[in-house]
């Protein structure tokens, strides 16, 4: 089984990339949220990999962090949810939004994802509610919203997180103040 993959991003297209390492190009399916966070072709990438072995193929699914991989694996444990639907679910919402929808039993958010009907959404909530980490265990929503705003403004996620963490450590918790403080660092 392949657990992680580090190499040069040689091809980047919707839901699928090719990572070249040791002279071999590995085709990796990724959620759209991961695709948008990846650097340009030719850059080095590091992904957490879920390996799916079938009778006729070995498929690789890539994630930027272990949490994304964990949620993907949890989705696969649900009856009626295969790798393609799980990938579609994580493409249709961020991991944080998905976890929040499960925690708050938000069937509406889940059914907006193509391929997820009401019964599937209810099954996902029922089976994952106790298994997945609570969103309350993560940083407050203001942190996530500010990070999203910085990324939408064109800053790389890793750099934006670093700067946002500084502001957050100062005790700033309101979105507008977090954004102001972060932009102050980023525009230096």
TrEMBL record:
UniProt entry keywords in alphabetical sequence: ATP-binding, Cytoplasm, DNA damage, DNA repair, DNA-binding, Helicase, Hydrolase, Nucleotide-binding
Entry GO MF terms: ATP binding; DNA binding; four-way junction helicase activity; hydrolase activity
EC number: 3.6.4.12
SMART domains reported in the protein's UniProt record: HhH1
BP terms from Gene Ontology: DNA recombination; DNA repair
Gene Ontology cellular component terms for the protein in this record: Holliday junction helicase complex
SUPFAM superfamilies, per database record: DNA helicase RuvA subunit, C-terminal domain, Nucleic acid-binding proteins, RuvA domain 2-like
Record domain Helix-hairpin-helix DNA-binding motif class: where: 73-92, 108-127
Alphabetical list of Pfam families matching this protein: HHH_5, RuvA_C, RuvA_N
Name by which UniProt lists this protein: Holliday junction ATP-dependent DNA helicase RuvA
Organism: hydrothermal vent metagenome
